[in-house]
Amino acid sequence: MAGALCPRPGPRRSIPFVAVVGLIVGAAASAVAQTETVRGVVTTADGHPVAGVEVLLRAPESEHPIESLTTDQAGEFALTASEVRPGREILLHHDGFDDVTFPITPQHLVVSRIELTMKRSAAVDPEAVPPPMAEEPPSARYAPVSEQRKRAILLYNEAVEEYDKATKDDAEDDRQAAELKLREAASIDPTFVEPHRLLTRIAIKRQSWAEASRYAEDLLRIVPNDEEAARALYLSLVISRHHYRVGEAAKRLATVNPSSIPSIEEHARTFYGNGLYEMARALYEALVEVCDDKVTAYLNLGICCTALGDSEGARAAFEAFLELAPEDHPDIAMVREQLAALP
Greater confidence, 7 or 326? Predict the structure, then answer.
């Protein structure tokens, strides 16, 4: 009987799996072939569409794009779905903005929509190395700086310069040495934010999700309400499918930034649709606490628990649904049947 229920459909939303560039992750790679185009949108960091962006789909190192187009007034574009494949990349270019290159990898299964964000050239790019000089937070600028903090800042600044040079020279050994200095700076002064933040960004850039989650947690211990760290932790756990940790991370992100709740809801629906019920359950358990539509959240949580054979969890969720649902809700009769069938 569990198969008779499914999550309530809702408006499709993009799933931003990384801070700067995100792809919707969907049910299966074969879904690409079911749509003729993959639509996308380019926005600024604050959500405004960017028109006239040159969008190039190409193979890495190739001088000739596979597809070339520009975004419309709504910042939207459409690529041929069959051409959007792992091993290729999307390049965005617009005067006054930093170029964005996004590699399409096997773990990013494109379903229907790509969301890309461009940063103005004068702004700080979350994936870029910060400027060499680290500053104290405003509250501490006029307080004496400890010798411990001075040593950490000096080491951090050296690491930034070395990492920047190693990146330009494509010198992996030097990059690793610079990262070692960053970790040492963080160890010298555990309350110094910048090394943890940069290590988190570096880990995300190379898709080292276990490291990213660890560094993000370190940063959150220093700044509990840091939105960037909360997002990095949540997305790292989503991508690596840590169902036993992702729920708390989702609640933290939703608390720090309530506008992230729709993306969390979309992740939950996507995991359910892929049969990853433990991940879906963990997210719905978080959503029943933080989202506005608790009726749907409890309904879908009950469905996930039923699929996992968790009768106790299903009963609690379905009973909460019946308490909150309006009398004319279309799933009431079905939920009552599910409750009656539970052992």
Answer: 326
**What pLDDT, on a 0 to 100 scale, did the predictor assign at position 145?**
64
Note whether residue 15 is domain-resident.
Answer: no
Task: Return d(Cα 303, Cα 131) in angstroms, integer.
Answer: 49
- pTM comes to 0.60
- Backbone phi, psi, residue 76, to 5°: -100, 155
> Model confidence over 161-205: pLDDT tens digits?
898 888 888 888 998 999 999 999 999 988 888 899 999 999 998
Question: Beta strand 21-23 with 67-70: parallel, antiparallel or unpaired?
Answer: unpaired
Q: Residue 92 pairs with which residues in a beta bridge?
A: 55, 100
DSSP string, 134-175: ----GGGTTSPPPHHHHHHHHHHHHHHHHHHHHHHHT-HHHH
Would you call 78 exposed, middle or buried from its count of C-beta atoms within 10 A (0-12, 13-18, 19+)? middle
320 Cβ contact partners less than 8 Å away, ≥ 6 residues apart: 288, 294, 298
321: domain range? 2-9+126-137+144-341
Query: Helical H runs in 258-342?
Result: 261-273, 277-290, 294-307, 311-324, 332-341
What token pair was written down for 206? Answer: 């190379």
Where residue 76 falls (left for φ over 0; alpha for ψ -120 to 50; beta otherwise) is beta
In a domain, 238, yes or no: yes
152, 275: one domain? yes
For residue 100, pLDDT over 70 is answered with: yes
Q: How far apart are CA 213 and CA 210, in angstroms?
A: 5
What pLDDT is attached to residue 91? 87
**Which of 29-33, 136-140, 298-302 has maximum average pLDDT?**
298-302
